[in-house]
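Tokens for MmyB-like transcription regulator ligand binding domain-containing protein. Go.
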Amino acid sequence: MSLATCAASSASAPWHGGVKRLHHPQAGFLELTYQPLDLPVSAHEAHSLTIYTAEPGTAYEDRLQLLASWAATGLEAADPAGGGDR
């Protein structure tokens, strides 16, 4: 499927994104915008990828970046040599 075909088909598809509000035990309250994307695998099958973002310049963005830094640090701590299954 070409990019143009994919864009044309997604333009007519219903948009099921929105805002998710949640509380993380360490980072606190987060308000994230989400957008699910269907990724076609074959003519009859698709995988779904959901993208979450925080509004730029907000405390939510700061908290999300903090969580990302913790996740990155955890990966480095678990595999200090930088190898592994990534």
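Residues 3-77 form one domain.
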